[in-house]
Predict the structure.
Amino acid sequence: MNLDDLPIRDDLRGKTPYGAPQLDVPVRLNTNENPYPPSPGLVADLARAIGEHAGELNRYPDRDAVELRAGLAAYLGHGLATEQVWAANGSNEVLQQILQAFGGHGRTAMGFEPSYSMHPIITSGTSTEWIDASREEDFSLDPGKAVAAIEEHRPDIVFITSPNNPTGTAQPLDTIAAIAAAAPGIVVVDEAYAEFAREGTPSALTLLPAHPRMIVTRTMSKAFAMAGTRLGYLAAHPAVVQALLLVRLPYHLSTLTQTAARVALRHQEELLGTVDALRRERDDTVAWLRSKGLVVADSDANFVLFGRFPDRRAVWQGVLERGVLIREVGPPEWLRVSIGTGEEMAAFRAALEGVL
Ligand code: PMP
């Protein structure tokens, strides 16, 4: 039997699973991870904390993850309270819960592409209809056009990714506020990369009090250097959190996950201590790529989109053959490189120069 013989949903027929190649190469710069592993001190603290809770693994975890959510609220600041914060297994699961609660058959979600391709995938996975409202040539959003698209389609959910993946583009708060004012339903501001933003790019968290249907999503996978922990979270009005409780699976966050995430919060100074170095490395990478005559999108994230290559597959392959894995993603003719350590970026530069 093969897949086609199964009574799979019609809308899943012929699809391929999402995911970048997980290849065993010396330098992996393809999934926007933080390249810095946890320190021995953090690893020891983690092992101790897991050890303390291992004796309770016959019991279900705290279903509402209250202590963790309190810690996340304190980390976010902005006067947020525990009941305004929700957490799940990666921000992907947070997004899926949002679609389960506010999307569904007969409903629509809109995003501004090119953007994070899991948004349309999670949208269609919940039988919600996807509407693509596009970006400008330079990947920015024209607030007037965005508002016009919302007024035309009246989507139940609007996604704004800021800083955007794969382009790195951050949205000014004015644009986000204009979209939120026009949107008839939920507005999700996906801030997975917020901590990497350049000076003067504030978080949409400041807009929450004025826009009770706005949700800001975050993750520990990027700046927090905890991608393996799978912990994403959001801040919103307490009523939004109550809506998500209706669709979340009971005990979705394991004791081990909650423990690891709480330890990560205790070590936030160390973990977020890598952000400045990554930002500098990012700005150097942008400058270097431009010095090579390439077109490079401004980036407020821990990755850089650059091009344009009529045969981008050949460039991706050439860089890979030199031991560096980058990502073939985004508009045709562009490639994306995640920011690694200084050494890894030197290897990337050497590999790309070898190809060009
Ligand atoms: N949002 C954006 C914009 C992303 O780029 C990613 C990861 N690539 C995610 C959400 C999901 O991250 P995670 O599930 O690891 O929190």
